[in-house]
Amino acid sequence: MRLLLYVGFIWFLSFLAVAQSAISARNLSSVSHNDLLMRSPAAVAYADNCFNCLLPAYECMQFGDCRQYDGHCDCPPGFGGDDCSVPLCGSLSNGKDRMPREGKSCQCDDGWEGINCNVCVTDEACDAFMPEGTGGVCFHGGLGVKENFQMCNVTNRKILDILDGQIPQVTFSCNMTSDTCNFQFWIDEVESFYCGLNSCQFSEENTGNANKTLYECSGIECSCIPDRMLCGQDGSIDITDFLTEAIKGPASFSCDSSTKSCDFSEPAMDDLIESVFGDKTILLQCRSSECLHYSELPDYNVPVKRVNKNLLFFGIAVMLVFLLLVALCTKFVIAKLQDKTSDVKIPSEDETYKLMTGHQPSSLLFNDIKYSVGTRRVLNGISGIVKPGELLAIMGASGAGKTSLLDILAHKQKEGSVSGDILVNGFKVTEAQFKTITGFVDQEDALMPTLTVYETILNSALLRLPKSMSYNAKRLRVLETMNELGIMNIKDQYIGSESQRGISGGEKRRVVIACELVTSPSIVFLDEPTSGLDSFNAFNVVECLRSLAQTYKRTVLFTIHQPRSNIVALFDRLLLLSYGEMVYSGFHDDCQGYFSSIGYDCPPGFNLADFLIDLTMTASKAVHTVNGHNDSDELSISPTNGLTNGDAEWVPLASRQPQQDNTEEIEGPLPNSAATHTLEDTDLNVLVQKYKDSNISQTMQSEIQQNIDTAMENSDRIPAFLTRDNKIGIFEQFTILSVRTFKNLYRNPMLLLTHYLIGLVLSVLCGYLYYNISNDISGFQNRLGLFLFLLALFGFSTLTSLQVFASERQIFVRERANRFYHPLAYYASKVLFDVIPLRVFPPVMVGLIIYPLVGLNFEDHAMAKFLLALMMFNLAAAAICLFIGVMIKDTSVASLIGSLVMLFSLLFAGLLLNRDSIPRSALWAQNLSIFHYALEAMVVNEVRYLTLVEYKFGLSIEVPGATILSTFGFTASAYWSDLSGLIFIFCLFIVLAYIGMHFFLVEKR
């Protein structure tokens, strides 16, 4: 009896404990999750300390692992609480931040479902697991890849009948890394029992229309949750002992993807199911899911990037065909440009007369010409006259003002102040009118070295003769002029240069003269035509000028320095200068007699030119030396006694002067005596004044005035010789200059061939180094490196554009000064035939080879865009260098500045310095960088729609091209704006280069 009371008491206490637990649970369930979070730290600490899985009284459900360091459970995904018994809601992507279930069911996040929200539904739900936040896929295949979760409904008919409306469900998950699985059995979303499976193997069988997956685990242990359905709830069946003692494995879980039907099988459990419910195993209808990166899908194959060999061969074929066509066209054009003169005969006298009917003999008169630069007087009161058929030689020592006077008479632009009258046949004419009847031959020869003599003179004729004159008539005029100057025998020889053998210096001088005479000018000016020539060639040149003057009634003026006596004998008139003062101006035949009349006899056999130069130099030295108080020895004009006439000519005059000490400048007029004067009475001012008082000067002045009076009587009409036909237009000039430039290009092809050869070699090298570039991060780096290398190659190669005008600067300045053509025609021809062949074709050729070899993007016309960007960059860089070459005469300085411009532009390209790292005050520099525009355009064109794949963290991470572009500071939509920037810069500097050439490349003398 006592024993029964004791047992009853124990049962009563247990009942109270159970009741108390039920009450506590009911109270706890009425407390919200926020209320739990608002508990005091002490209470929470107390609650945490209540559970300790290290103690025998506590265990981790779901066979979770017990942490040895704090006694808490590591729960499988979807379960929480101290003992892993509480389903978690939200989604797997929430990680440790998932909230425990409150109430009967979970509220899952969008894209998730299941009792504990472990099953994904949409791909977007899996993006949260991806490192880049994109590329996730909710994989619904039966066989897991890493860890899959399945939500199943039990379909055993008898189980459904017994439960009478209650829903039996199963959650099943497997971790393929640890070869373990978990199985939970639920009734109305309340867990009844669970199993842990280990040593699992996973397999898949493909049967054509469906895949069958099989999970086989050799180890299994199960456990009931007390007081749950099937585990003793309300006196129901309790399979606790059965699960712990009878379930030993092996277990399997198999599914058919076509019907979504699955079954869970274990020998002991199968016996129980068959004996109680009549089925062989637990039958299920499952929904499987697993979040994966799309590159981890079982059927995903990493795309293999291949070189488009067809396009490669096509590009090479196109390039070869293009080069062949260029060669054939060049050969054809060269053949057409060959001007055969074998069928052209020298004009007869009648034909010569017809060609010369437009020529009007003209006299040149100049009176009281004064020229000063600042406070320094260069010329003072120079007068003279020269008529058709006469040669006027302007002589004087160095610094006498010969070239300055010739430039002023020829209407050249001079720095300083010029005054006086320059008349043609007594008329004052405008500069434009004056240029139509005059020609000017400079002291330095400025000729195209690659042209023949005939072509050089023909270009001058085609550019300057009236447009009404036929082409054959112009050719005849060229041959006539060559015959006049005696250079017909060298008509097919090249002009030549220092590095290219050509004609001699005397022949070059006559070619330069022919370029002026071919237009039949009435007045010809020549600056030192015998300079740099030997005595024989110098005589030939002057003799030719005299013949032209007398035969064809030309008016010829030239400066000359110490000519030989046989050359002096060819002069008709002579103008002698000394320190800007006019010592003599008149006929050559009267010169010696005049100086004898004022007491300065030229020694017999002595060269008159040498005598006059020494005279003016001695007079100048006397004035300047005495004024400067120099006591050095001076020169006498008297001939040395005891020398023969022949000896006198060869002995330097300075060595035949007596010693003079303490000389003083003579003031007042020289005595009117024919006696020989010594230094004491050799005064430049006296010589100048003596000439002004002479009959020769007075006769000349009266003749000038007579011509002026005659012209004044006809001042109401323009003389016929000043109304010649206009020259050809700019387009015709451009055509002629283009032919000349083309000839210069193909006859001196080294620069062009070097560009093409280097481009060919480097394109093959780059194709080898960057062959079949990969679509990953390293491939993106290689793309940037390739693009930057190409831009640097073409950018710095455009520095050769600095030489475009450097080599022809002098030729252009002289031809422009002589009104050969309009500057625009010359500039356009240089741009078309010098810039275009070097800046358009090489990048196209390189691009056709490199693009398919490297395996760049071919979508959306990417190759054409690449070639366009590279070509426009090359043109923009060439335009910048062209502008620098035009503005800076010194090629060394121009090269330095050009290199610095390219380097700073390269610095702001976007690779060496990220845009986000550039100070705001320096961002403008990137807007001026052609390297930035080109690099961004090429990279955007290549990478914008490209997906770069990088293998990191065991994943195949795909990075969109737009993302990495923004990381490097590039704008994904900037291709056309960048291309517009390159076009703008090209146009801007092409215009600026022309403006600079038009206003700054002007002859200044």
Protein architecture, described:
The radius of gyration is 53 Å and the shape is rod-shaped. The longest helix is centred in the first third of the chain and has 29 residues, at 309-337. Helix content is 44%, strand content 17%. By secondary structure, it is an alpha+beta fold. A hairpin with a 4-residue loop joins strand 11 and strand 12 (211-224).
List keywords for this structure.
1005 residues, alpha+beta, six-stranded mixed β-sheet, 33 helices, disordered N terminus
What is the number of helices? 33
Oligomer: single chain
Q: The biggest beta sheet, please? A: 8 strands, antiparallel, barrel
Q: In order across it, which strands form the biggest sheet?
A: 8-9-10-11-12-13-14-15
- Secondary-structure-derived class: alpha+beta
